Every structure is written in C-alpha cells, then in structure tokens.
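Entry type: protein chain
Record version: 2
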Amino acid sequence: MAVHKIAAFSVTTNCAEPLRGIVEIDMAGKTLRFELNEDVAHSLCSDLDHFLTQAQQRAFDNI
C-alpha cells in the first residue's frame, strides 16, 4: 500500500443537526473528499489525540 504525504486539509460543516461535514485532503496533484459525521469526528479526534500523546511521550523520553 502506498503512503502519500498530506499537503493540506480542510473541514467544512454542511449541516449542524445532525452534525455533518466534508473533509478535503490535498496531496500531490490530487484532492480527496470525504463525508464526515459526528461519530467519525469523535473517533478521529480520539485517534489524533493518542497519536500526539505518543509523540510528546517520545520527546520527553529523549530528554
């Protein structure tokens, strides 16, 4: 599986109730669009928080 570097991303809200939006991820010459709902947003937020916590822990371990 190829891994692509994210150049930029954006999130826009389509509807407030129920909460829905569009995530756009820009890669080299290509833009991917995904529909996002509140459940997926919470899951993504949790995963990103875990990712950032691991990065901070590694930084502290290297001090």
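Comment: The chain has a mean pLDDT of 91.
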